[in-house]
Design a protein that fits this description.
By secondary structure, the chain is α/β, with parallel strands linked by helices. It contains four helices and ten strands. Helix 1 packs parallel to helix 4. It is globular and about 50 Å long.
Length: 156
C-alpha cells in the first residue's frame, strides 16, 4: 500500500483513514501487530468527537453486561458486534496501560479519572506514535484505488 504524505509517497502495510476513536484504536492495534501504519486525518487534530462525549469528560465505555447492553440498542444491534470481541475490560486495561486510568460512575459509565476527554485522546496519540504510527493531520483521502501490491490513496 502506498500513501502520499504531504508531497512524498510513503510505503506502509496499513493506512487508516480517520483519526477518531476507532481509527486511532485500529492504527494502534495494527502497529502492535507489527504493521507499518499510516493514519490520515482530515482535521487539524485527532479525536475531535472524543472531546464532546460525556460533556467533555469522555464517556469511554460502560461496564454493563454485554447482553444487557445489546438489549438497550433499539435498531440494528449487530452493528456493534465488535463490542463482543473488544470488551469494556479491554478498553479500560488499554487506557490504564497508556497512562490514563479510568473510574466507574453511576449507570456503569466509565470516564478517565481526570474527567478530561483530552487525556484519552493524548493517551491514544502517544501510544500510536510510540508504536511507530505515522500520523498526518490536515490530510484528506480524495480516493482509494486498487494497485498492483495493495492500494494507492490520493490525498488532498
Amino acid at each position: 500500500m502506498n500513501t502520499g504524505s504531504m508531497s512524498e509517497k510513503t510505503a506502509c502495510d496499513v493506512a487508516v483513514i480517520g483519526g477518531g476513536a476507532a481509527g486511532m484504536m485500529a492504527a494502534l492495534q495494527a502497529a502492535w501487530a507489527g504493521a507499518r501504519v499510516a493514519l490520515l486525518e482530515k482535521n487539524e487534530k485527532l479525536g475531535k468527537k472524543i472531546y464532546i462525549t460525556g460533556k467533555g469528560r469522555c464517556n469511554v465505555t460502560n461496564v454493563a453486561d454485554i447482553e444487557d447492553f445489546f438489549k438497550q440498542i433499539p435498531r440494528n444491534p449487530r452493528f456493534l458486534n465488535a463490542a463482543r470481541q473488544f470488551t469494556h475490560e479491554d478498553v479500560t486495561e488499554l487506557l490504564d496501560m497508556l497512562g490514563t486510568p479510568t473510574k466507574v460512575e453511576r449507570g456503569g459509565r466509565v470516564f478517565p479519572e481526570s474527567d478530561k476527554a483530552s487525556d484519552v485522546t493524548r493517551a491514544l496519540d502517544r501510544g500510536m506514535r510510540d508504536a511507530g504510527v505515522v500520523v498526518s493531520l490536515n490530510t484528506e483521502a480524495a480516493h482509494v484505488k486498487p494497485a498492483e501490491h495493495g492500494f494507492d490513496i490520493a490525498l488532498t
